[in-house]
Structure formats: C-alpha cells, structure tokens
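Memo to structure team: turn this sequence into structure tokens by end of day. - J.P.
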Amino acid sequence: MLKRDETAFPTLKEPLTLYMKVHATIEFGEGPDWARVTLTQKPLRELFSAKRLCEEKGLEAVVLAANVDWNQEEEFRLSGHCVRVETDAFRFSARPRQVDYDVETDTVWFNDLEMALAHQDALGLQWHQGVLIKGAGLPDTLIRQGVLTAT
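Reply from structure team:
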C-alpha cells in the first residue's frame, strides 16, 4: 500500500463546478458542446492520488469511473463515463451510442487547476460567475444556452 502525504492535495472550502469544452476524438464526429463536473474534496483527492500513482509507478495514465454531466447527454446516449489521469493533466471521456469514437473534454493541467484554485491567472482556465471554465469560447456558449448569464 502506498503512503500518501495528504498535505499535497489542494483543499476546497466548498464544491467547485468545472465546465469543460468537449470534442469528438475523430475529425467529423459529433458530441456534446460541454461537460460539467462538481469537484468536492473527495473527487479532487482522487484525481491527485491517481496523478501521484502515475508518478510513483511510472504509469502513462490511470483511468477511473467518473460522474460527469454532459449537455445533450440523452441525444448522444453517452456511456462509459471516465476520467483519464496522467502525471500532469486529466480529461473526461464517454462514448456516444452506435458510433466508433469517443468524446472527451479539453485537457485540464494540474498546475493550471492549482493556480486557479488559488485565484491566480491560469492558462486556459477562467473564473466566470463563481464557476471554473476550460475551453476557448465556452463562456459565450454557456451564456447563449442559458446555463450562465451575461455579466
């Protein structure tokens, strides 16, 4: 069993909502526009534990089951929700029914996430109305779809 240093994990004072832009893993594939996860201390600790496991064991990645909300989830009939955690980043994915490709979120870099949690400027992550957003143009999409309001 691996010994863990709990102080290495970022601490959340309250749940964090993270929206991420989504793309298909093939050129002309279709999928949802975005995915949303709510990070509490437990899922955040699991992400960082998987990161550390990759580092300690020399693994390319660890894949875990994940609880993800995808817009248009019923339309694409998504299944196999998971998160792929690497030593420096993670991304969520799922498979639309009756196709031969996956959809996945933009990659979230651990360093950027830690900076954003400390409310420092982070490349590719931005705060908008108390939620964290990953993906160019995604705030406009979320506003247009009525998920967020314009400020």
